[in-house]
């Protein structure tokens, strides 16, 4: 009968292709009669057991006999030969006559097989008294000869059984092996010759320190020609993120996935524990902490104490600092550190001691008592004050002073660290420092407050750094607190600055223009009667920008001119640059792009020279926008990319205009067919959900276009809750939802999403381009629904869908004629979307007009590669329907789809080509037409396993999801397919071609 190993951890095998390839090659060699061994090394939890389990499954599937044994951690002498006894024990009960004969022929195996057969025929098979078994398991010093006989018996029985089929012997956790087990392993591996035998041993590399008894044996074994060593390293970051996503039952926020992957350091066990602790895993899970701390229990008390001191450092700690805080002399410290380093708990990095695993440092630190934690932090703070110099000193001093409750030292250190972080282009770090300063401000006596700081200034700095690090909501909250905290006798310039900051922070949020305008007017009233000053020039410049946004161009022009004049008179180049930007945007609105770009370039130059970074980015953004409005794609993308790079260089990636530049660049790349890789859609941690949504709303367009429907569906659902945050979030994610439903064949859903988006845009801000674009994207679904209803003779439904299409057409045309575009006239992009809308609408009452689709495709020729390909596909379909040749349009659309990896468009063009009997370059004509499936990838995977006869629990075990989640997926499948039972759902899926014969 087949003997199979016990299953491992049940973790999905992720990113172990190379390692599995090596193990399978070793198995193949064994199958050819080339006995060999593999020693698998890796840290605890890195996936050794799962890898060996996968090998065992492959071996059993190939007809091999798999025997598995494990060493256990028994410190008082251990159990001799335990893993071999466990591995060979099934042989005593095997019903295979070959196995039974091989066992009976070797009496020495009695020591390992207490229930195995007697060597004499007719004996009492396997009946050995319990006492006799225990005696057999004990090492007998005088039985060296018996030990050799045992070794020969083990090798002999494996060799004999392997004549019939390959044998795989798995021995796990060799770091716990007793001396007898090590001896037997050594003999076994040294005698591997022509047997059909593979021996695989695993051990924790971190536990095999310099004096470990296994270390010498390993160095001898790896020199044997038949033995190879396989080191299992932690998962790479990308693989770790994929592993987290595979384990999660529901889609997780990308930032959460990244955080878990990063904290786990690629260790699969750590991933499991962190994920099980909750989506945000802020605290170290108790179970994981216990596992990590258990490793340290065997160390001497002094070593554990030094490890606690290292954990408090929070980073690498020098030998001298460690000696100072631990209070040990050099000799004592050397000995304790040697113990920790040899056991791979600490590593030496550039002369500093650090924990090998950051999670172990977290566990040790969390285990500290409050008193010892405070004392150790105070020790580090004192050491820093005495000796530390250079970059980072103030941040370290602030950290340790805060943790030791020395707020008088911490406050000035935090403020110095804040400015240092700003110089280094790290506004997020600066924000953390100023927020910590605010939290202890009242706890520090007033006489110890820095002379040049008060609470209003702290709040102002917090608002600035919030805004520049991608947290606009916090920027508004801090700016509001700053104006509320202004003393009654505040100087006008200072009060005006606070109100201007408040107005500018509000501008980053949707729907706050009126409040922001009131705030800037308040600032202006404070300085209107003052002499020219830099503060007055800044307020005038800001006021000009707000007046332009409020559609008061004449007043905006007047204020901007006054700002330039005042700024020049007082030498405020930054304020002058800000006013020049407004003059440039006013020129763009008047249709004078030449003057606009000249003004914007001058503003960028002056802002750069003045070090006014946010103003510089604002100039670069509006310069990119000027070219984008005229659909000069190459120049627009060049300026957007240049601005994005400048924002990254200065640490202002997620400032208001840094983010806008990135968003503009990403959308231009979508239109232009320069599609980026994964990281383009991620904002990273520490950025507000509103800013993240702004980027994700564009990224989801890429996901839909690439056919990654499940991810896109999850994101569009999440982003729907963010529509009120920014009109661009609504427009882009709303368009993605329309595309997603249409590609899935759900035209009812696509039309519903279109009408919802159009209504939202009308309610929030009737927008020229956005309205035309939304109507154009949704119109093909109205056309498709009308055609379907017409085909089935449902006249009422035809009329309903025609009315829906008519409403969209009317809306788009009204936007084109009644809107007020930023550049004064409808630009090339607007005209292209309008042409697409008219082309789609031509199919409402019958076959679409191919000429109109050709015109739409030509209208997108300014550089919107993907949209042009979509139009070419529609053009080809219209021409074929009209009896014309659509080959040229079809080939054009297909070529773009293949180049971009736009899977849905590629499949759609190939399906159309098959119906038209057109051979497309690179597409096999014999490929069956793809079917649009209403099922998500996960739902289809669940249904495939149900088709194999799996129960819900079995499906859950195989997919690593709960039984309840399986039931939910099946309910959705049955609802979509109109089935009342599981079996009926499977039958319908096969009938509609949604399932192929699933593989076991």
TrEMBL record:
Entry's Gene Ontology BP terms: regulation of DNA-templated transcription
Chain segments annotated as coiled-coil in the UniProt record: 586-620
Keywords linked to the UniProt accession: ATP-binding, Coiled coil, Nucleotide-binding
Recorded GO MF terms: adenylate cyclase activity; ATP binding; DNA binding
A GO term from the CC aspect: cytoplasm
Stored InterPro entries: AAA_16, P-loop_NTPase, Sig_transdc_resp-reg_C-effctor, TPR-like_helical_dom_sf, Tscrpt_reg_LuxR_C, WH-like_DNA-bd_sf
Region (Disordered): 113-142
Basic and acidic residues bias (residue ranges): 131-141
Protein name from the UniProt record: LuxR family transcriptional regulator
Species name: Amycolatopsis panacis
High-level lineage: Bacteria, Bacillati, Actinomycetota, Actinomycetes, Pseudonocardiales
């Amino acid at each position: 009968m087949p003997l199979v190993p016990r299953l491992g951890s049940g973790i999905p095998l992720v990113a172990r292709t190379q390692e599995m390839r090596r193990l399978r090659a070793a198995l193949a060699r064994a199958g050819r009669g080339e006995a060999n061994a593999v020693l698998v090394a890796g840290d605890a939890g890195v996936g050794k057991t799962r890898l060996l389990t996968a090998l065992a499954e492959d071996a059993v599937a190939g007809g091999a006999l798999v025997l598995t044994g494990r060493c256990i951690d028994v410190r008082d002498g251990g159990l001799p030969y335990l893993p071999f006894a466990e591995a060979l024990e099934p042989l005593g009960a095997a019903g295979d006559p070959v196995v039974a004969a091989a066992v009976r022929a070797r009496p020495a195996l009695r020591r390992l097989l207490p229930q195995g057969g007697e060597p004499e025929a007719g004996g009492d098979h396997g009946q050995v008294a319990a006492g006799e078994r225990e005696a057999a398991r004990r090492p007998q010093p005088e039985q060296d000869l018996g030990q050799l006989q045992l070794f020969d018996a083990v090798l002999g029985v494996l060799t004999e059984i392997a004549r019939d089929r390959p044998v795989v012997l798995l021995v796990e956790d060799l770091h716990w092996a007793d001396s007898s087990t090590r001896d037997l392993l050594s003999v076994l591996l040294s005698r591997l010759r022509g047997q059909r035998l593979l021996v695989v041993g695993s051990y924790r590399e971190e536990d095999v320190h310099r004096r470990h008894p296994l270390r010498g044996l390993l160095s001898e074994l790896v020199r044997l020609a038949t033995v190879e060593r396989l080191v299992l390293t932690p998962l790479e970051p990308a693989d770790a993120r994929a592993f987290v996503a595979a384990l999660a039952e529901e889609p997780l926020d990308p930032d959460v996935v990244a955080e878990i992957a990063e904290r786990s350091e690629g260790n699969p066990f750590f991933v499991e524990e962190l994920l099980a602790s909750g989506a945000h895993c802020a605290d170290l899970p108790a179970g994981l902490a216990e596992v990590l701390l258990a490793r340290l229990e065997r160390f001497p008390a002094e070593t554990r104490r030094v490890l606690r001191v290292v954990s408090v450092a929070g980073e690498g700690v020098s030998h001298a600092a460690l000696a100072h805080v631990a209070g040990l002399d050099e000799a004592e410290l050397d000995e304790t550190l040697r113990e920790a380093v040899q056991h791979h708990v600490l590593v030496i990095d550039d002369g500093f001691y650090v924990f090998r695993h950051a999670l172990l440092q977290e566990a040790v630190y969390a285990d500290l008592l409050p008193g010892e934690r405070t004392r150790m932090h105070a020790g580090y703070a004192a050491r820093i004050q005495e000796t530390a110099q250079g970059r980072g000193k103030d941040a370290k001093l602030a950290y340790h002073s805060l943790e030791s409750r020395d707020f008088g030292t911490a406050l000035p250190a935090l403020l110095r660290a804040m400015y240092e972080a700003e110089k280094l282009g790290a506004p997020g770090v600066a924000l953390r420092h100023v927020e910590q300063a605010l939290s202890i401000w009242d706890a520090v006596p007033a006489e110890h407050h820095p002379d040049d700081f008060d609470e209003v200034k702290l709040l102002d700095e917090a608002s600035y750094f919030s805004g520049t690090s991608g947290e606009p909501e916090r920027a508004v909250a801090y700016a509001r607190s700053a104006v509320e905290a202004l003393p009654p006798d505040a100087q006008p310039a200072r009060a005006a600055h606070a109100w201007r900051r408040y107005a500018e922070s509000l501008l980053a949020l949707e729907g706050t223009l009126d409040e922001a305008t009131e705030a800037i007017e308040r600032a202006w009233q404070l300085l209107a009667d003052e002499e020219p000053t830099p503060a007055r020039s800044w307020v005038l410049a800001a006021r000009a920008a707000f007046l332009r946004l409020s559609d008061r161009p004449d007043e905006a022009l007047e204020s901007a001119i006054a700002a330039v004049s005042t700024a020049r008179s007082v030498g405020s180049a930054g304020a002058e640059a800000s006013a020049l930007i407004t003059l440039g945007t006013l020129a763009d609105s008047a249709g004078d792009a030449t003057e606009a770009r000249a003004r914007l370039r001058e503003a960028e130059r002056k802002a750069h020279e003045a070090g006014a970074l946010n103003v510089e980015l604002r100039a670069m953004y509006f310069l990119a926008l000027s070219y984008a409005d005229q659909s000069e794609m190459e120049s627009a993308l060049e300026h957007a990319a240049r601005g994005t790079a400048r924002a990254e260089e200065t640490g202002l990636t997620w400032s208001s205009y840094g983010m806008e530049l990135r968003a503009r660049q990403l959308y231009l790349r979508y239109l232009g067919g320069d599609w980026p890789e994964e990281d383009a859609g991620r904002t990273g941690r520490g950025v507000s959900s509103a800013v993240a949504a702004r980027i994700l709303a564009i990224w989801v367009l890429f996901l839909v276009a690439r056919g990654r429907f499940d991810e896109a569906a999850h994101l569009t659902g999440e982003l729907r809750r963010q529509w009120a945050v920014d009109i661009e979030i609504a427009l882009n994610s709303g368009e993605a939802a329309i595309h997603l439903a249409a590609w899935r064949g759900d035209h009812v859903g696509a039309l519903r999403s279109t009408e919802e988006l159009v209504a939202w845009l009308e309610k929030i801000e009737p927008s020229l381009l956005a309205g035309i674009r939304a109507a154009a994207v949704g119109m093909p679904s109205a056309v498709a629904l009308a055609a379907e209803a017409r085909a089935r003779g449902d006249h009422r439904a035809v009329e309903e869908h025609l009315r829906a299409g008519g409403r969209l057409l009317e809306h788009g045309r009204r936007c084109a004629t009644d809107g007020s575009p930023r550049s004064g006239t409808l630009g090339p992009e607007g005209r292209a979307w309008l042409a697409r809308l008219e082309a789609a609408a031509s199919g409402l009452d019958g076959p679409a007009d191919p000429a109109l689709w050709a015109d739409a495709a030509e209208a997108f020729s300014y550089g919107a590669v993907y949209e042009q390909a979509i139009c070419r596909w529609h053009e080809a379909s219209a021409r074929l329907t009209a009896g014309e040749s659509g080959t040229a349009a079809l080939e054009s659309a297909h070529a773009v789809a293949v180049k971009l990896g736009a899977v849905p468009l590629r499949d759609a063009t190939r399906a159309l080509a098959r119906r038209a009997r057109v051979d497309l370059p690179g597409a096999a004509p014999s490929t069956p037409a793809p079917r649009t499936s209403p099922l998500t990838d996960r739902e289809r995977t669940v249904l495939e396993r149900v088709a194999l006869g799996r129960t819900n629990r079995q499906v859950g075990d195989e997919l690593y999801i709960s039984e309840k989640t399986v039931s939910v997926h099946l309910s959705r499948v049955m609802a979509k397919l109109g089935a009342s039972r599981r079996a009926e759902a499977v039958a319908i899926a096969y009938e509609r071609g949604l399932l192929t014969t699933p593989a076991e």
